[in-house]
Every structure is written in structure tokens, then in C-alpha cells.
UniProtKB/TrEMBL annotation:
This is F-box domain-containing protein. Gene3D superfamilies: Ribonuclease Inhibitor (3.80.10.10). Residues 5-46 form the F-box domain. It comes from the Eukaryota. InterPro entries: F-box_dom (IPR001810), LRR_dom_sf (IPR032675).
Amino acid sequence: MKKYLPIEILQKIFCSQLDILTLYNCLLVNRLWCKTVVPLLWQNPFSHFDKNKIQRWKYKSSLINTYVTCLDSNVKNYLKNSDIILPEEINKRSTFNYETFLQSLDYTLLFQSTGNWIGEVENCTLRKLTLRHYLLVEELCKLFFSSSRNLKELIYDKPHSLPHVQELRYIPLKYLGAEQFMSKLVSFKVYDLIPNEIIISLSQISHHLSEIQIETTGDNDDVLASLISVQKSLKKLVICSEDNLPKLSDVLRKNLSLSLTHVEINWEFCVPFDIFCNCSDTLEYFSVQQYYSGSISRSTFHQFSNTQFKKLHTLKIITPKLYLDQISTLIKNTKDTLKYIHLDYEKISIESSVELINSISTCSQLNTLEIFVPDDSISCIVNLLSSCTKLQRISFLTGDSLNDLDTYTVDISDILPKIGKILPNNLSTFYLSHNWITTANSLRDFLKECEKNFKKRGEKKLDFRIIKELSAEHIDVIEEFGKRGILDLEDTALGKNLQFYRQQFEWKLARNIIVNK
């Protein structure tokens, strides 16, 4: 008697080891593998292909074709009586109940690909919403909401440019029999302007969302605040806003039971950092991007920087203005839990930069560092690298506006060889600031020291970046250490640009010869 692994075990193996194309090949092995793979392929079928390529929408139209075959015969008759043309093969029942496998529904993709399917069947372009389009989307949504026990995620993506459909309309959830689905919903993502009615419906029923991702212009602050205020299990919050959200901020600040683990905030204006202080025992990932410095002051960071975040492993702050002594305090308060630090700020904020670099030096678990290092603290890099021995990726940022990149340089020739002596053994990426320059001899000495340190690395090479004021001698050094197996010049930007740099030198040389004649 043959013994097979249970389907559940096979699915876990397939999900962790195989890509989408290999999964398709597995369909043809035998019946057991087919039954195992089909649910995996239909968990989120719209996400498997590039939505920006028009030819992929033929695939999405075929998905709609398959889902329409899953509709009840009475529903199909209703659609026919509503002047929707259904191909002959639609009358056959599908091999599997594909609708039951769906775990993530992107309403925008469903709506647009349904219109695209109607356009292909009728050989026309639906420039405006038709009743046929509306009715078919409605019935498909009802099918998913009533049949799929696994449907946990609802997405409203940005609309896409399609050959057969242009207009996008939103059907209120209350008309789709979605109450039971909404009560079990765990993830809600919105990347476009949607009617407030949809968010209000969710706030009335969906109280156990673990993930919310919202892009907003800021004019729906009150409904977003209402949605957040009723959540009991929220772990991940991602908000991109073009304006301040005072009501939402107030809800986050007052919710003492909030236990967020992942926060990403991208606001045009100043982010009130203190709204997340209540998550000191749970917060693991914290990322903030803000672009306007007018309202940023020391009070903005004060409470947040003095809070001990016991589990924080990722800290990413991109802002025009940053008080480095406060960020130093924040880093010290994490008690060596940080593994990823990204700090990008303008040169106006360089006070206490040495203190900041020294505080980062205490992060022994750090594996990724992306940071602007002001001129007066470049010498501290040696101590930092000798202390953070687990670093795998280092990227030194500029701290300048794009207008300054071509006019300002700092010569690090004296310190670069010293850095080479203490680079961490597991380092795979090392990017110098765009504004840093070095002599060809210093670069050679640096790479020689790297070669000594990297003897234990085996075949692993270094992805290295240096951009400013490269000469032919620099290129010779880089190519030499590429051949010696120290620098990765095959799959990196530096390697791909070497030929371009060579051509630039040849062109300048030829131009100088012509001018001198």
C-alpha cells in the first residue's frame, strides 16, 4: 500500500520552496499533487502577474471566465436575462470550487478585469460603467463572500489602464452580503480614494483587523479614526497621508490597550511621534517619513525618544530635521535590540552627530546601517565598525539636497584604509556617500585590507559603491580587485557602470587632445 504525505504537509513544503511557475508544473505530476497545488494557486490569483503589462490582463480575463463558471445556474440565468453574454463553456461547472480557495480579494482588480472580460466577450470597450458590468461584479463578490471560508483580506488598489474598461465604481459592501466576511476580516488595504461609506461599514463590523494600510489625502480623518478606535487586535499600521490626521492621532494617543508591532507612517507634515509611546512593550518595526520641517521641534521627539521600546529591531526615520541627541537617547533606550537603522536627515541637523555615532556603536546586533554621517564624525566610523561586528549591509547617505550633490565633496583618503582593516567579516554591501572621494592609492590600500579580512568568506564578494571623481586609475584598481574575487562586478551597479566610466574618460581625453591642437 502506497503512503503519501498529507496534503497539508505538501502545501507547506510547496509554499516555502517553490515559485509560481514551478507550482504550475506540479499540477501535471499526479492527482494528489494537483489537488494540493490548485488551492495554492487560487489563494490570490490576481497577484501572480505584473498588473502593469496589458498582455497580462488576458490572463486576468481568463480568471473571470473561470470564476463565472463557478456561479450557480440560477445566477447565470439571471445574468443572461440581464443581457450579459455568457460564452457556451460557461454553462459547464468548473472542475474545482475555485472561489472557496480565495484568501485575498482586490476589489479594483476584480472590477477592472471583469469589465475587461465583458469587453473581450462583446468585442467592445466599456468607457463608462454599464449595468451588465455592475451586475457581474456584484454576483462575483457575493460568490466570494458566501463561499470562501479563507477570505481574510480586502484590498482597494489604484486603478490600472486597461484596453477594454476605463471607469471604476465602488459597490457598497452592505449590498453584497458581506457582513459575515467583514466580521472575520484580518487585513484591510486601501491605496486609492474610496467612498467613506465602505470604511464606515467596516468600522461597524470589522473589529479584529490585525493589519490596516491606508493611503489618503487627509480628508477622511474622522472615518479613519473611527475604524482604528474599534480595533481589538491591530498589529500592523501603515498610513500615507498628504495632510495631518489629528483625530486619528488622538485615537492612537489615547488607546492605552494598543499593541502595535509594525508602524509605517509617511506624512507630508510633522508626525506626532508620541502617539506610539503606548506601544513600548510590543513595537518591533518603526518607520517614519516626513517632508516638511516647519513644525518639527524638540517637543516632537521628546516623549518618544525617552521611551524604552523593549522589542524594537527596525528604526527608520527620514526627515529634514532631526535632533540627534534625542535619537541617541532612543537608541540607547532600546537596550541593544536594534538590527536595522536607517536615519536620513539634512545637514542642518548635524549637532551631536558624534554622540549619535557612538550610540549606534553600542548596537552589537546591528546587521543593516543606512545613515548620513556629517563631516565632523566621519572619524568615528572606525570605532562603529569595530563594535558592530554583525553588520552585513552599510550605506552612507549624503544628507544633501539633490542640488548639492555635484558641488560638495569630502576626501576620506586618510580614513578609508583604516576602515578596510576592521570591516565586519559578514559584510556583503558597502556603499560610500555620493559626496565622498578618495585617491586611487587609498582605494587600493582599502581593498588590500579587505582582501586580508575576507579570507574566511569563501566565494562571497563585496558589493561596493564609489561614485564621485573616479579616474582611470580608480577603474583599474576596481577591475583588478574584481578579478581577485574581492569585489562583485557582475550583478552590481558599480560593475555595470565600469564600461560607461571608461567611455567617459576616453571622450574627455579625445576632447582635450582636440582642444590642445
